[in-house]
């Protein structure tokens, strides 16, 4: 038994649409477009998979209400374009966009459009989606309005969402046996700088590392890992595990020759550049 009673949140429609029916009275109240971030608890399946099919997950969810079917349908491409831009530019993924079959569409909706992704194990998983609900929920929750002619009509609705499942897809598609590979647009740190020094050359290697850090900070999210309690090898493995896109190694040779050694996380290839060339790279 819990020390305090907790209520598990039901589906959003059950909570929100009775309020919609009170808020909306006239065509002047439309469109209503509501966005929220929240957690979801679902217990209708037996075999959860971490990040891909959790019993609890987080998502960004939209609910909109329009006065006509045409206006509601026109929202579809705007929302799917936002999702597609997020998928390609931030997550660096490619998905197949299309309409779900009637047997797979959202229960209560007239049509569902989604992005589908192929995982390394050959299975597919659904990503962000958009549901055109027509007047189905409006009739169930009495969401009506007076049109410009003073006649009462049921509203038209859409719902759409993007969830933390997409992190699971990104990890599965981009990751390898060394850990995560996080795309630059999403990475907390885009560049990690690891100085390699001993007591004799510590000062000049750190000074050069700080100089490179300062040069990069104006363009990228950079972290200088100058911790002395960990070895360079340990740091390499640690940041590879976390998936930082680019590692810069700076030792005495790089410092004396004004070089930097770059290591890409996606293919682990190394490249040495002189400082002037690196600034343009």
TrEMBL record:
GO biological process: prolyl-tRNA aminoacylation
Keyword set includes Aminoacyl-tRNA synthetase: yes
This enzyme's EC code(s): 6.1.1.15
GO CC terms of this entry: aminoacyl-tRNA synthetase multienzyme complex; cytoplasm
GO molecular function, one term: proline-tRNA ligase activity
UniProt-listed Gene3D superfamilies: Anticodon-binding domain (3.40.50.800), Bira Bifunctional Protein, Domain 2 (3.30.930.10)
One Pfam family here: HGTP_anticodon
Sequence ranges assigned to domain Aminoacyl-transfer RNA synthetases class-II family profile in this UniProt record: 1-183
Catalytic activity: tRNA(Pro) + L-proline + ATP = L-prolyl-tRNA(Pro) + AMP + diphosphate
Keywords: Aminoacyl-tRNA synthetase, ATP-binding, Ligase, Nucleotide-binding
Official protein name in the record: proline--tRNA ligase
Source organism: mine drainage metagenome
